[in-house]
Structure formats: C-alpha cells, structure tokens
Design brief:
Radius of gyration: 32 Å
Largest sheet: 21 strands, parallel
Structural class: mainly beta
Strand content: 35-45%
Number of strands: 64
Amino acid sequence: MKRAEMGLFLTFLLGCSSECVAGTAEAGATVGCESNPTGNPIGGGAGYTGVIDPSQADYTVSTKVEFLNALAYVQANAQDSAGGNHGVVYGAAWEDGKTGKGLRFDGVDDSVDVAAQASLKLTDAMSVAMWVRFDALTENETPVDNGLYQILHRGGWAGNGIYFLFRISGTDSPGDSAWDGWAGVRTDGELVSGRWYHVVGVKERNWLRIYLNGVLSKELQCMSGQTVDGAAAGDLYLGLNPFQGGLDEVKIYGRALTASEVSQEYAGGSVSSGLVSWWGFEEDPAPTRKTVYVSDDAVVDLSGDEEIGIPTMVTLASGRGRNGSQGALIRNRRRGADAALLLAKGPGVRLTGLRLIGPDLEIGDHHYEGPYRTPRGIQSGFPGLEVDNCELAGWGHAAIALTEGATGAFIHHNYIHHNRRAGLGYGVVHGYCTASNPISSLIEGNLFDYCRHHIAGTGTPGISYEARYNLSLEHDNGHCFDMHGGVDREDGTDIAGDWIKIHHNTFRDREEYAVGIRGIPRFQAQVHNNWFYHDILADAVFQSNGDVLPRFRHMKVVDNLFGTTPPAGTVVPVALPKASPASGQAPLTVSFDASGSDVTGGTITGYTWYFGDGKDAIGATAHGAQTGHTFKNPGRYDVTLQVTDNRGIRSRAIVPVTVTPAEGSGNVLSFWVKDSYRGRLRGYYRKEVLLDGKIVWSDDVEGDEGWVHVVRDVSAQVAGRASVSLTLRVYCTKGVTDPAKQIIDVFVYWDDVFLSGFDVKNGGFETPDYKWRFSYSDPPWETWITTGESRSGFAGFSMCAYYMETTTSGSWAMVEQTVARGQ
C-alpha cells in the first residue's frame, strides 16, 4: 500500500497514551541491521558458517529421480524387513496389531507411501497377504494399491466383500470386476466392522484367487486372453484415504502361494520363500536427523510437481556460499497450481543452502485463473521449521507459508526476492490459525527485495512474529512488514495478531511504508531501533482498521532513526562500477570492473551485475569483480552493480551504457515496456508511443510476459527536425463498465527510453519528474515514477488503472518530453 493511497486509513501519530509510545532514536543508540550480531552475513551466501558438508549427508543427489527417491527413503519408518522397500508413515498411528504392533488409519489423510520399485512391479505370479481391520466399512477402501494390483473394499452397491484386482490393458472387466481395465475376484460373504481378517490375493497364470482367514473364498480363471498392464505400476500405498481401520503384517511375494502356505500364514507361521517385502509395523523408530544433499551444481526441475513431502527431522541441503557456489537450483516453471512445491510433513524440517526458484517473478495482476495460479515455495504446519541460507524467488503467493501449528519457525539469512504477485506476493506469510493452535516465527538476518510484503500475517488470534536484523532494499510494491486486521478478514473484529516485534532492521524503500499494522494487536506491536530511510515516522509506519484511530493502539514505536544519513559509527560499503567502453555501436561488448569498491573496516565478499536487458524480471546477470557483457541492440542501459560486504550489507551503484545503431542505420527509437494484464480480453487498452502526436508504435495490452524491448527505425518521422515531442501513452479504446466480468486491473511499465541522434533526458526515470511531463485524463488512471519495477537501474515509470475500477473509452495516461537533437 503506497503512502498516497492510505487516505483516511492512516493513523496519524497524535495523542499517544500509555499504550501508544512514539519517539526517535537518541544519539548513540544502535539502530538498523548494520551492526549484525547474528554471526553470519545478512542474506547468507559467502561467509555463511552453517553450510553443510556433503560428506556428512545420508544421501547426495543430482537428478530429479534421485531427489524424489531420497526423500522417500531418508525417513522411511515403515521398515521392510525382507526387501528394503521401506515406506514413510504419514499420519497413521501405531497401535496393538494382530501380532505385536500395527498401524491405525483415520480414513482422512493417513497412509504409508512406498516409492515405486522394480521388485514390486509383479506382472506374473505373485501374492499379497495382510491382516486388515475395517472400522467403518466405508466405500472404496484400498488397504493395498500400487496401480497394478490392489485389495479393495468397495462397499455400497457391491456389498461388504473384499476384491483382489489386477490391472489389464483395454476396457474389459473380467471376473468379479466391475471396473474397466481391471480383472478381479471377490470374497463370498459379508465382512463385519471392527474385526481382524487375514486376506490373501494370489495371481497364478490366468487364475486370480482370494483367501479369507486361511480358506480359499473364490478363484476365477479371469485372466485368460488378457494382457497385464505393467506400465500402470507406481508408488505403493498402504491404507490410503478413505481406509479407516488397522493394518498389520503386510507381505508381498514374487510367486503364487499355495493353499497350505496361506493356511500356515493365517495360523501364525511365516513363509519366506519368494518373499519380496514384509511390513510388520513394529514400534515407530525414534526419529533421527537425516540429510539429503543436492549437489552444488545440480539443477532439479520439479515443474508439474507439487506438495513434495519432506519428512520429520529431515534436512534438505546444498552448498550456497561455499567456494563461490550459488547452491543447487530447485525450480518449478509451471504456474498452474495453488499449492506448495515443498511441504513439511512433520516437525523439525530444515532447508539450507538451496536456490528455490518459482515460475512467477512478475507483479502481474489479480487474475488468478487458468494458467495464472499462485504457487508457494515452502509450506509447513508443524513446529520447528528452519529455512536458512537459501535464495527464494518467483512464488506468486509466498516463498514461505506458515500454516496452523507452525510454531517456532526460524527463517534466517536468506535472500528472498521477486515474490510480488498483486494482492498476494509474500516473502514469509503467516496463515490462518487459532489461539489454541498458533503460528510463531523468528525472522532474522534476511535480505529482502522485490516483494509486495516481505513479511505478512492474516492477523488471526495466535499469530506472532519477531523480525530483526533484516535488510529491506529499495524495490517493493507494498508495505514491507505487515499484519492484517479484522477488516481484511471481514470477521467483525479489529484483531491484528498477538505479538509483533520489529527491531534492528533497515528499510531503504522511501516510496512504500515500511511497517503496516492493519488492526489492533491482542497484546502489542513493538517497532524500535530500526533505520527507516523515510524522512518522518508518519511516512514509515501506519496502523489502520478501516477508520481513523486517534493514536497507535497496543503499539510501542520508539528509538527509530529516519532519513538516509547513516547513524554515527555505521559503515556501508561503496559500490564503484566502471564500464569500458561506456558507449559504442551495436553489438557492443563491454568490460566491467568493480575492483574500486570498498568498505571501511571490512571486506567486499560479493559482486553482482545486473545488465538491464533480458525478458524476465531479473534480466541478465553476472558475478565477480570483473566481467563482460554484449549488448546486441541499440538503447540505453543503466547497468547496476551490487556489492556485498562481510556483514551481508549491500550497496548499489549505476554505470550507464549507451549503445547506438550501426553506422548508416538512421534514427532508432528504443524502449522497454511491460504490461501486467493476463486475461483473455482484447481491444480494451493499447500501449502507444507517439512522435509529434503521431503513433509510431502500438500494441494491445493483453499480457506480455515480461519485458519487451522495442526497437524502431523512426528516421522518416524525425527527418529535418531540430526537436520532437516524445510521448508514452496507455489509451482506453473500449470502456470498462463491469470490472468483475471484464478486465481486472492494468499496469504498464516503461523504462530506458532512447532515441538515437536526440537527447532524451532521464530516459531511465532515475531522477523523479526530471524533464518528463506526467498527465492522465481522469481517475482511475494514475502515473508515477516507481522503484518497484524497472528494467535497469533503480526506477521505471508506471501507468495504471486499479483493480475493480471502471474506465471510460477515450481516457488515457501518458508521459511526454520534448527532445532536441544532440548526440
């Protein structure tokens, strides 16, 4: 929420009482994150001391298959005492079984998951045996199922018998089966709920047999003329939803058991010949910390996957920061799921040293349908989640989502950026919970940039967080640290969480509020010892609840510093980029040097170059004190150098590069443009560029994915002219009268405007309002220079019509400048 948009919702700092304290830092007070007593650099990376040694990992993986298999095996607590096909118990509880211990399943979300293995893909003779108890005899219960064979209690119209089914090619349903592509045999008689049964299914050549309590119930030669569909075999699930009851002594054989062997198993004996797997479900072993290490140079593409479980007490690690490594890249390039990619399945999960990059780096708009879903990176509803030394970007909903039950989360020393989807876009979000099942977190030493809200919470009772020693950089599209209130939730209350503690952070974005508490905390929000680059407190912190409050309520705001001047004794690094050559004809290869960068009393540990070209939101980058880059097209580029010191403190500086057209190419107009609209409607808005009032480029606002570099020869339009009027415009060609059914919201961004042979002032919009004239026809159109979106440098220019507003045909927003012939 921009300060200018707050209107009457702003709580001005007036009339403070005992529950409302406001004051600025005294001389000598420690403010901001720069002191950094955490023992590791802010944002992690080079110098991070907690990087895990891969030689100490339980599994080291480099591919997707290895990655998924390792997660399946690393915390397997359903031990296969015959074949090593260990399973992971999700939710099921140990109980007294038929013999010793067994597992009880709740019929909701319990299961034992066993990863697909060749030894379990049995297409010829085989047997599956178990003790099973059906507590409710609900429909479609499958105590055993791997897609190739299953034990099924159908219930309902089929009665309370048990089926042994085998997958076949085609659509036949031979034997007792009533399902296309399955052959089957069913027990005679009806089951009784709450009673243990010994069930054995046997396949032998063309015969399917099913035994109940040691006695053959039925056999059918129903496989004659059928082909087994071995490709259907997948992961093996024991007790999958909606099965409610108990399982014990589940065994799978690679041969057909005889009648006498089945009787022997029922009587308590044990047949070992041909035994492939045996899950006895004896007492749950005590969980121990296990580590899956993803090789530093690995790229694991999980596009299309979702909710990949990370079991209890498992660390997923890579080597970000070791010997210059960026850490393994785990990515998802598919936006079509409202789900987390990695899901903690129990307490004590840790992710460290990884890059987790999602599919949605853009601000976009409120269009959340079709392919434009809002994925999350990491999600947990269990105690003790730790995420450290990771890079997390591209998650339209949230990089890290904490749900009910996620207490004691520790989110520290990460680089969290480009999680900024309109209306969502959180670095760390605290979801809905209750006071009896709360959410709490410590968020420390992180580097935040390009998020809508770096930290957010729904504000329900039970939510608390502490944020300290974090560095928030210049680019946000909403207030940085947030807590929602009752007005946002529409629950009739004014509650904004329990405790919020925000201290010793540095906020560099002067365009957006740093802290927004959108209600009244049940206990208190403490905001102290922070360094705000804003000039005054009223520009940095707000409290709102749908109306004007007379004061901060349940808030303590003290000992903060305002303005861009560093506090006494605080040192920030100096970035000093050089380019050679800094101008020339396209294609232009430029060498860059940052060796002159320095920090008093410390060392520069990292250099990142942002070259200002490329389609996606981040664009082309490189690392190192010296590097090079080739600019293929004419234009202006504000190349940005970011340096990092040993404390993790960042500084940035720009070196401009001008690329002129090849000799004899005439006058070239170059600019970058991006729009946010992702819907399917055309013909409502157009992006346009005009010279002396005549359109030289136009395109429908229909959802360009990422930045588009437009290069046009305009020699004919400027021939013989000493100066020309240059206009960038968004024009409404068809009015929006019902925004709920028509277009939602439209943002168009412009940057790096260049016209060869003419002197375009402030073409990168780095200086507010300099030489450009901004205007719009009528509300809801707005225009402004923004630090929240730029192709290069620190800023760009935005034109927008807001969410759920109506617009009139013929309305417009534009920026213009008269440019004279020059270089």
